[in-house]
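This is your field. Pick holes in the following sequence-structure pair:
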Amino acid sequence: MHFEVLVEDASGAITLKFLLEKILESRGRGHSFRVLSYKGIGRLPRGLHGTTDPQKRILLDRLPRILRGYGRSLQGQNAGVIVAVDLDDRDCHQFKQELEEVLDCCNPRPITLFRIMIEESEAWLLGDREAVKNAYPAAKDKVLDDYVQDSVCGTWEKLADAVFPGGAAKLASLGWPHVGTAKCEWADRIGKLVDIHRNKSHSFQVFQRGIRQLAGLQETENGP
């Protein structure tokens, strides 16, 4: 099966590429995927028409048009769409319902899986503490101990406090481009080491089960 994967930023795209390769075991199994990153999450447009300038590449603003386009282009193909977005400070159930309403407006409807990262994609990295420590041996154990998995707590800031010299405050003082660069580095260095079976993030395990179900993959004995 082929998956078109939509994610809101570059660091999330890096993380997803590593994780999907491991989940799908795509080499030699006939599965494939393409990850498309956007420049922010934005918000769903009123009336679900998605009239935002496409050059701005804001994910939710364009989502209605994107899904309608996939409904036409993927019709009859063994292919689907994955929309992976951060929860941030939204209500999870309400957000999921709003996303499903976008899909309901599509005719034809593409096969679509909505998955929400609680709170941010860095939670899926923090879900494997061993991977964090292997990527950053000097990562602060106290910070990692205090983190409550999948909590709404400022997740990227927690990871920054654990691995970035001077922590989140120092990184934020450098400006957002530096934050984005650091997040991409974490995604690359930790993401390639994440063990998808020992990952303690519940939202990641829900994501993994959904992908494997769509792909028709059997769970392994050590799987979720």
